[in-house]
Amino acid sequence: MYEGEDCAAARALELVGERWTLLILRDALFRHYTRYSQFHSSLAIAPNILAKRLNTLVEAGVFRTRALQARPGHQEYVLTEMGETLKPVIIALTRWGDQWTGPGPVEFVHQRCGTEVEHEIRCSCDEDIDLADVQVRLRSPQPAESA
């Protein structure tokens, strides 16, 4: 745990930064896996580790479980909106890996036209910006809610 860290990045890493968790999310987001057995055969992960990671993601709201009609007593893991919004994170990490550790076997394409998608940082003023021009500043304190 990142005790004493008042940082959204640290809290996010605590939830999704572990390698097996990122690979589970990759398989759910891009391979559309929902079943424990699919994740297990894809990742060759120890069953207890997989169960723990899936339970943590369910508890955090990244996945929700749904009973399988075809297999009573079994469930599937369905991404929530919170989980679906991790797609750009996996794309960015994969792109970084392609550039700095060697290209992987996949590229990300627009389903409708088949063209590779771009992942960029843009300012809300709609101007393209250089990464060197991105800085950090403290947020303005939010007023306390009245009881």
TrEMBL record:
A Pfam family assignment: HxlR
Transcription regulation recorded as keyword: yes
Transmembrane segments: none
InterPro entries registered for this protein in UniProt: HTH_HxlR, WH-like_DNA-bd_sf, WH_DNA-bd_sf
Keyword line: DNA-binding, Transcription, Transcription regulation
GO molecular function ontology, one term from the record: DNA binding
Domain called HTH hxlR-type: residue spans: 7-105
Top-rank taxon, per record: Bacteria
Gene3D superfamilies given in the database record: Winged helix-like DNA-binding domain superfamily/Winged helix DNA-binding domain
The name this protein goes by in its record: DNA-binding HxlR family transcriptional regulator
Organism: Nonomuraea thailandensis
